[in-house]
Design brief:
Structural class: mainly alpha
Low-confidence stretches: 342-347
Largest sheet: none
Helix content: over 70%
Mean pLDDT: 81
Strand content: under 5%
Distance between the termini: 32 Å
Radius of gyration: 22 Å
Order of helices and strands: HHHHHHHHHHHHHHH
Number of helices: 15
Number of strands: 0
Length: 347
């Protein structure tokens, strides 16, 4: 019942944010004119934009497969792609992308992957995923002050807020990932506190399972600490994955037949939006992403094409990702763990 209530809340919240975003962006605008402009784009340039989104989803599946195999867990690449799709779908529809990893852990458990291992793998992915944004932001602050003043002046507050939140988030996750004894101590003390204030009933079995889980977690953490090459490979794949999604906006730019702004600049601008909105408690950064796009991409698209450009860019970067990941999440629901269930039923 609690799970159903949470689902209903998330759906209502998503619809409300979508409605508010739609009203805020298009209120007072000539929708007919915007649609007519969008019809003039070269659709062939949007195809590589869609491919960029697929690479983004596929990239995480490659990382999951690689990390699982490095930990001695054999899992098919196709199943890893479904894990990735599940994560992106639930991240797209929940505030702060909070639903992605719990959903992935659930589906990984259906494939008999231990929860401490799946949690550790997803934690490493999240750390490096956010670290790419942190490094991008730091690089812009140190080497790109001219870029920031030219393009980001109207969104400077959101950029630095996002930077700060990402730095804090990465620091906390690094402590948990690479100081497992400290993480174990926190979890055990937290469990005791919850029992003392009567949020949880005292159960020795639960405490025992928690200790066992954290010991497995520690084993995975130690392994990854001793295999720095694994982390380097994951970082490089994540770089390709994240910048592939940023590049989708470049193909929107080309679809309008525009020239004069380099791919590097467009990708950095889209990356700046990601830095700003990644930690905000909005599904897919909805609302604020559109606002920042309209603030910083004006010199790139011009006043006439700015809104149509935003529609297509967000259509690729968020809504195409949402639709594709939703389709494969449905596939995951009917395939992951199904063979094991069939074997049990036959027995």
């Amino acid at each position: 019942m609690e799970s159903k209530k949470k689902w209903i809340f998330n759906i209502i919240f998503l619809l409300l944010i979508f409605a508010a975003t739609f009203y805020g962006v298009f209120h007072g605008k000539d929708m007919g004119r915007i649609i007519e402009i969008i019809k003039t784009v070269n659709p062939f340039w949007l195809i590589p934009g869609v491919i960029c989104v697929i690479i983004f989803i596929w990239g995480e599946s490659i990382i999951i497969h690689y990390l699982m195999h490095s930990l001695g867990i054999k899992v098919k690449k196709w199943i890893c792609f479904l894990f990735s799709s599940v994560g992106f779908f639930f991240s797209c529809i929940t505030p702060s992308a909070s639903g992605g990893q719990p959903a992935q852990v659930y589906y990984m458990k259906k494939e008999d992957i231990p929860i401490p291992i799946s949690t550790m793998v997803l934690l490493i992915i999240t750390i490096i995923y956010k670290m790419v944004l942190v490094l991008l932001g730091i690089a812009l602050v140190i080497f790109g002050q001219g870029f920031i003043h030219r393009y980001l002046s109207d969104a400077i507050f959101w950029f630095y807020l996002g930077m700060g939140l990402n730095v804090v988030c990465v620091a906390i996750m690094v402590v948990f990932a690479f100081h497992p004894n400290f993480a174990k101590s926190i979890m055990i003390k937290g469990h005791i506190l919850l029992e003392r204030i009567h949020i949880l009933k005292h159960r020795k079995s639960r405490a025992k399972k928690l200790v066992q889980s954290m010991d497995q977690y520690r084993g995975a953490a130690v392994y990854l600490q001793e295999n720095k090459k694994v982390l380097i490979v994951v970082f490089l794949i994540t770089m390709v994955q994240r910048f592939a999604l940023f590049a989708a906006t470049w193909f929107v730019y080309l679809a309008f037949g525009l020239k004069g702004t380099s791919a590097f600049t467009v990708i950095l601008l889209q990356g700046s939006i990601a830095v700003a909105v990644d930690m905000l408690p909005l599904p897919g950064g909805m609302g604020i992403s559109e606002k920042i796009f309209l603030d910083i991409f004006l010199p790139v698209f011009g006043s006439m094409l700015l809104l149509p450009g935003m529609v297509l860019s967000r259509g690729l970067g968020y809504y195409t990702e949402l639709i594709l990941s939703a389709i494969f999440t449905i596939v995951a629901n009917f395939t992951i763990g199904r063979k094991k269930k069939s074997v049990v039923e036959k027995c």
